[in-house]
Amino acid sequence: xxxxxxxxxxxxxxxxxxxxxxxxxxxxxxxxxxxxxxxxxxxxxxxxxxxxxxxxxxxxxxxxxxxxxxxxxxxxxxxxxxxxxxxxxxxxxxxxxxxxxxxxxxxxxxxxxxxxxxxxxxxxxxxxxxxxxxxxxxxxxxxxxxxxxxxxxxxxxxx
Length: 159
What we know:
Jelly Rolls, mainly beta, single chain, 4-stranded antiparallel beta sheet
């Protein structure tokens, strides 16, 4: 059985501080390192998605290159919302106005006019009126293939 030194401790021996090496078994070392790496990755995940804590995922759409329009359909079963938020991943795009169509047929145009880098998100978008049932959201955008990857728009809602 081979032992690997990992932990050092400072102890007092005859009025002198000495370094004490605590040997570990290979399996213990592997377990310790595995737990440390898992903890490191889980902390990054929590940090990157912390802004989504109180948000409900409504859908996504992979965008095409060039000037285009896409729709994210939202069903009534998702609930009622007072705010929306967008997150763009995988690529970048230039967002133009967005149209929110409610279940009762009314529409609200939202001026966004923002360039989204990969991984960026929009401001919090307030919806007019009280809690509203969103039927669909229509996006106009242009993507100039700056990132060579098609962007994906994720839509979130909060009530």
